[in-house]
Amino acid sequence: MPVQLNHTIVPVKDKQESAEFLAEILGLGPPRAFGPFLCVETANQVSLDFDDRWGAVSSHYAFLVTEEEFDAIFERVRARGLTYWADPGHHQPNQLNANGRGFYFEDPSGHNLEVLTRPYGS
């Protein structure tokens, strides 16, 4: 079997708030408890396991989505009044980036989340 990413631990301030935020924004199933974690599973069965035992450590998570998923996610971000940026450094507010369609936004713990419709370099 080829190497595949199975899960990653996401350190956050409040696992309930952050897990529910991501699941809602991305249109994924509700978080499920597993040990001390709240897990959100993506379509390719990679889970993000939210853990609030040690506080947040800011990271970057990028999600590759279809055009239709992008439209729905972008609408949910705008409906919440969230600021979004075209670039990872947050210098171009309220713009989409030029690589297909993509943008960055922050979760409640300050993680830099990215949604894009095609991988970089493609």
CATH topology: 2,3-Dihydroxybiphenyl 1,2-Dioxygenase, domain 1
CATH class: Alpha Beta
Structural class of the helix and strand makeup?
alpha/beta
Please indicate the count of domains.
1
Helix content: 10-25%
Overall spatial form: globular
Distance between the termini: 25 Å
Radius of gyration: 14 Å
CATH homology-level superfamily: 2,3-Dihydroxybiphenyl 1,2-Dioxygenase, domain 1
Low-confidence stretches: none
What does this structure look like?
This protein has 122 residues and is an alpha/beta fold. It has a single domain, classed as 2,3-Dihydroxybiphenyl 1,2-Dioxygenase, domain 1, CATH 3.10.180.10. 20% of the residues lie in helices and 27% in strands. It is built from 2 helices and 7 strands; from the N terminus they run E-H-E-E-E-E-H-E-E. The strands form 2 sheets. The protein has a 4-stranded mixed beta sheet with strand order 1-4-3-2, with helices on one face. It has a 3-stranded mixed beta sheet with strand order 5-7-6, covered by helices on one side. The longest helix has 13 residues, at 67-79. The protein is globular and about 40 Å long. It starts with 6 loop residues before the first strand and ends in a 6-residue tail after the last strand. The mean pLDDT is 94.
